[in-house]
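Treating backbone geometry as a discrete language has practical consequences that deserve illustration. The amino acid sequence and the backbone structure tokens for this protein are reproduced below.
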Amino acid sequence: MLRLEDVHTYYGSSHILQGVSFEVSKGKCVALLGRNGAGKTTTIHSIAGLTPPRRGKIVYAGKNIERMTPYQIARLGIGLVPQGRRIFPSLTVKENLTMPAREPRTKEAYKRWGLEDIYELFPVLKEREGNMGNQLSGGQQQMLAIGRALMTNPEFLLMDEPSEGLAPVIIEQVGEIIAKLKETGLSILLVEQNFFLACDVADEILVMNKGTIVWKGTPQELLANEEIQHQYLGV
């Protein structure tokens, strides 16, 4: 469903992604792990069109998207849960959710997400639908960021550090939510620093270091590979 081929992305003269190649199959969750500064968020931004690559191909559902604008990429069915949540603090919970609402792009058997579906997934958002975005806790803001992305009715979801700064009990809930989303047929690229969350939900793990993919395998293979854990993940 998504394929990166020899992607090179720069910030000015800084060469961040240095030949990144991988793919995410339809209905699968692939987790991208690595230390701070490894290039994980840049990978997300390259796919979403926020920081287009200078070289290489990004192919989504058979279409080259590396030269498309962010709004064009979003309209193809790619949703983004950004690092830091980036909800709108001056809008209510309900306004944050309804503002990006969009009908599904295709008639495939993906779950159709509406406001009541989001409230069923996150009951606390229903309770706080009149609260402003900046009146929510960190965990509630993360739920709102996920709900906002789902309201675009995506077929593919980019999730950038959804567990960042959250309490362990909320991280566990995030993992349960990702598992539920996989059941609906969504394809997911999950960028994470939480090693155990990624291993719980992903079908495949990619490890990134200094802008390159240095290892890939199953969660079980990574759990058994202490050398990779210590060298690249600090576990």
